[in-house]
Specification:
This protein is α/β, with parallel strands linked by helices. The protein has two domains: 198 residues, Rossmann fold (3-Layer(aba) Sandwich), CATH 3.40.50; 101 residues, UDP-galactose 4-epimerase, domain 1 (Alpha-Beta Complex). It is built from ten helices and 14 strands. Helix 1 links the parallel strand 1 and strand 2. Helix 6 packs parallel to helix 8. The protein is globular, with a radius of gyration of 19 Å. It binds uridine-5'-diphosphate. The site of uridine-5'-diphosphate (UDP) has 14 residues, from helix 6 and strand 8. Uridine-5'-diphosphate binds next to helix 6 and strand 8.
Length: 328
């Protein structure tokens, strides 16, 4: 397939771009580098442009005869979405629909979308299955759910096949240590824990220790970024015209913040200083995926099902790239 990976220079996008190319596809990356990194993708495959630039976007489809899209380009910080929902609706929905419409105009019939566990909101039961009610509790989740709905309508009316992959907590880095996580500012637990291990931060703030979980800290389902990437390849190859696929992307295992800290101490051999801090608004106590559906229907199986192996690859990346890609 000739694939346009939109937002392909970002964290999950760059790992997916690499795996799509390794699977034999003809891959182009479209990224404005607002959050992505030039060094994360092959230079001769990168189109640096904004989604708002419809002319360049249209050209990217025409010139490269694109027949499938993988869409990562979105804002993804819950707290920021609460403070500035207008930016989230504009980027994640308006510009997303512009991309979808450009894809349709150019005859694209396969579209893979980065959705999120945040579309479920506060779950009634753990593990979360794909048929659980989707009731987001913040603007970020609303925008992602809105886009899923648009995809459903496009599939029904225009035969656009789509897969909405609902990510749980992406973590880790490429096995060879050449690409990894570099957000600025960094807000995610695992990179922050490893920055403490590296001495780049004095301590980790643990956001809440009075949740109804065994040790009082939040439980999340950490899934390795290469396993996430693999799911995109499988989903794209499975898609048929007009099909609508929805999959959770988590391992099905949950770890508390304290368990992450303990595992990081064991992987790094360093003590992680922690400080108790208030709860972060909008954090559900536990988010754990049922991954039965994707395992069964796509044959997906994580190569890094345990926290230690995820942390080992992340540690390799952070140690060898203490300033990330060094481009900020
Ligand atoms: N967390 C924390 N301290 C930090 C960053 C995150 O205690 O400095 C917690 C956060 O409240 C959540 C978990 O770690 O319970 C995972 O957060 P992250 O931002 O990595 O991912 P999210 O679950 O928000 O997608």
């Amino acid at each position: 397939m000739r694939i346009l990976v939109v937002g392909g220079a970002g964290y999950i996008g760059s790992h997916t771009t690499r795996q799509l190319a390794e699977s034999g596809h003809d891959v182009w990356v479209y990224d404005n580098l607002s959050m992505g990194h030039r060094a994360a993708v092959p230079a001769d495959r990168l189109i640096v442009a904004d989604l708002a630039d419809v002319g360049t976007l249209d050209n990217a489809f025409i010139m490269n005869r694109i027949d499938a899209v993988v869409h990562f380009a979105a804002l993804a910080s819950v707290g920021e979405s609460v403070r500035d929902p207008a930016r989230y609706w504009h980027n994640n929905v308006c510009l997303g629909i512009q991309l979808l419409e450009t894809a349709r105009r150019n005859g694209v019939k396969r579209f893979v979308f980065s959705s999120t566990a945040a579309t479920y909101g506060e779950p009634d039961a753990i593990p979360i299955t794909e048929s659980a009610p989707q009731r987001p509790v913040n603007p970020y989740g609303h925008t992602k759910l809105a886009f899923e709905k648009a995809l459903g309508d496009y599939a029904a009316a225009y035969g656009m096949g789509y897969a909405a992959l609902r990510y749980f907590n992406a973590a880790g880095a490429s096995r060879d240590g050449t690409i990894g996580e570099d957000h600025s500012p960094e807000t995610h637990l695992i990179p922050i824990v490893l920055q403490v291990a590296l001495g780049q931060r004095p301590h980790l703030d643990v956001f809440g220790d009075d949740y109804p979980t065994p040790d009082g800290t939040c439980i999340r389902d950490y899934v390795h970024v290469e396993d996430l990437a693999q799911a995109h390849v499988l989903a794209l190859e499975k898609l048929t015209d007009g099909a609508g696929l929805h999959f959770n992307l988590g391992t099905g295992g949950g770890y508390s913040i304290r368990e992450v800290i303990k595992a990081a101490e064991s992987v790094t051999g360093r003590k992680i200083a922690v400080r108790n801090a208030p709860r972060r608004p909008g954090d559900p106590a536990a988010l754990v995926a049922s991954s039965a559906k994707i395992r069964q229907e796509l044959g997906w199986k994580p190569r890094y099902p345990d926290l230690e192996s995820i942390l080992e690859t992340a540690w390799k990346w952070h140690r060898s790239h203490p300033n990330g890609y060094g481009d900020r």
